[in-house]
Amino acid sequence: MLRYDNVTVTNSNGFGNLKNVSLELPSGSLTVVIGSSGAGKSSLIDVGAGLKKCNSGRLLVENKDISQMNSKSYFSFLKATAILKKKPRLIERFNVYENIRLPLLLQGHRAKYIRLETTKALEYVGLRHKELSPIKGLNTSQKMRINLAQCLVRKPRLLLANDPTFNLSSDDFDNFREFLYTLKDIGTTILVVMDSSRVGKFKNAKIKTLWRGELIP
Fold first, then answer.
1. How far apart are CA 197 and CA 77, in angstroms?
2. Digit-coded pLDDT (tens) for 98-130
3. Domains of the chain by range and CATH?
4. How many Å apart are CA 122 and CA 53, to the nearest integer?
5. In contact, 19 and 8? CB cutoff 8 Å
6. Are the beta carbons of 3 and 24 closer than 8 angstroms?
């Protein structure tokens, strides 16, 4: 579904560059790229989402160069793509339930479907008892679970995860890993970048190492 074709990215500060990176993500696959700080992990995610341009090389979405997409095609790609960051991004004036249902509202689904899917996601991430709680005051684990629930209701074709396990406990990491397998089972293509300390816990995943901007097989 997604392919990095000899991608090079040169940042002005020299930090997080990519050098001739080639990586293929088949539909429904799980790929984990490990690397230290400054290895280029964030650049890999940003290029994959079309948020950062390549200095050379191409990013191909179903064999179409993302840089050549018109606005309509790129918007369709973004609608089918979920992005997870280290720090959860939530709307504080909305409660937990309202944050989770927001993607479905934006997609124009009917109220009954929204309620059903939002409730299922709340139960999946263990936040049903918090559905009316304000975002302010929640801990990092709870906020990350809200982001996971948002992703779950969207049923994205592509998930790009930029080290979202950085601040998670061992138990929360295990829950996150199972969440990835749940998405993989419904056909989502997944790219996760992270440090190397927990990579051994992933099974049935393609593991790559990013070292100073270069992918090591």
1. 32
2. 999 999 999 999 999 999 999 999 999 999 999
3. 1-80+156-217 (3.40.50.300), 90-155 (no CATH)
4. 36
5. yes
6. yes
